[in-house]
Amino acid sequence: MRTGPGVRKAATAVLALGLSAALAACSDGGDGGGGGGDGTGHKGAPKLSVSGAYVSQPPMDDMAAGYLTVRNTGGGADELTSVTTPLASEVTLHSTQGTRMKQVSSLDVPANGRLELTSGGDHLMLTNLTHRPKVGEKVNFTLHFATSAPIEIKVPVEPTTYRPKD
After folding, report:
1. What's the whole-model pTM score?
2. Residue 17: pLDDT above 90?
């Protein structure tokens, strides 16, 4: 079947229109719900901050755990997708359900909510440490998110028995 210039122009116009509609649907300005903009859609962007971060002094030379809280005061959700640090060659995200811990690819940071990484709950596992950190040492962390810019923080090393105050 042979197509002429008119058919190609029409196909190009349809493709351009479809791409424009797709881009408009993905833009930050849409309410994601196709209607009333009642605040329950994907309106707004995440607005993240980090507090309460610490690493427990590890009892072993090759593994440590990290804890922190990511607050989101924005109207859009995000996800913590990875953490990097010069202290460890690998940092993995772990979710704890009951007594079971499992590695996950991301952790949700809900809109107008928080992600809490705590001892006995969701947490970071740092493996293949470059050295065993000492209490009082500060460790650089970079938190990477699905949509927000990375956040760099300095994290203190606390005693193994440390429990933050609420």
Report:
1. 0.73
2. no
